[in-house]
Amino acid sequence: MKAERSVLIWRVDVAFLKKGDWKYEGSGAGEGRGGRTHTFGVKNPAKLLAHATVYEAPNIVLHGAKPVAANGNGS
Predict the structure, then answer these.
(1) Cα separation, 19 vs 40, whole angstroms
(2) What are the residue boundaries of the structural domains of the chain, listed by start?
(3) pLDDT tens, 22-71?
(4) Which uninterrupted H or E stretch holds 62?
């Protein structure tokens, strides 16, 4: 994202997770080697999200890995 530029949101994924769905993924970078980062991931994401619903704007498509208007004229 850049200042003074439009932002287009074409897809929103919402997942309702429970405490047991999360896993801690410790960083291999110790103190003095780039810091310590605490990262969390989802256990078995493919199985957990297999039946999830995705909400997409039908008039937006991905072209060259970027979202663009499906009709090509920006609307």
Answers:
(1) 11
(2) 11-69
(3) 998 876 666 666 666 778 888 988 888 888 877 777 888 888 877 788 87
(4) strand 60-63
**69 and 75 in contact (C-beta within 8 Å)?**
yes
Residue that has been written with the tokens 């199985």 in this structure: 47
| 67 burial type by CB count under 10 A (0-12 exposed, 13-18 middle, 19+ buried) | middle
Q: Which residue has the tokens 């970078």?
A: 29
**In the numeric block, which tokens belong to residue 55?**
């909400």
Contact 40, 23 (CB under 8 A): yes
Tokens representing residue 27 in the block: 């960083």
- The whole-angstrom separation of Cα 64 and Cα 66 is 5
Integer angstrom CA distances of residue 48 from 12, 18, 26: 17, 11, 22
